[in-house]
Amino acid sequence: xxxxxxxxxxxxxxxxxxxxxxxxxxxKLPYSMIDGYPDNFExxxxxxxxxxxxxxxxxxxxxxxxxxxxxxxxxxxxxxSRETLEHLYNLSGFILNSAANKPNIRPRPENNDTWExxxxxxxxxxxxxxxxxxxxxxxxxETTTLDFQRGDNxxxxxxxxxxxxxxADALYHVGQIVSNRRASGxxxxxxxxxxxxxxx
Length: 200
Hints:
200 residues
């Protein structure tokens, strides 16, 4: 009887650990808060602030996600949260490539990252892109294009499409993650204050 009790206890502890949030070393990740204000309202800083707002929202939307949250989908025809988060990772790479004036290669290579790696890369992509945009002059941004490379075929579109395309799309999908995690029983930390860019 004693051995059965010990087995049940060990199983319960193991299940509890597995069900808890998937840990990441959050102390090393950017965007737990938005630091201060830029020194001026130049265009590069305005774009940076938009990306910072996305980064803060993403950080907390994805904080302490469990496996059951990642596998959740609101309906049979919907993506799982994990699939939506992979799309967000790709969008963060698109935003970073735009900041670095690098082409977006199509088709994308297969992503074999763990969730922890993907979250870290997404946040760092956004942070690096925001920093690079903050250093761009108006002239730099006026001459920036979004470039695509598919084999020998190259194409470009105006920078404006970054704002109404990947940036707006990423904000939309972060909202989906917030909604999904609420539906899967793990709501967003109530201290999150997206207006101020730091937790209450």
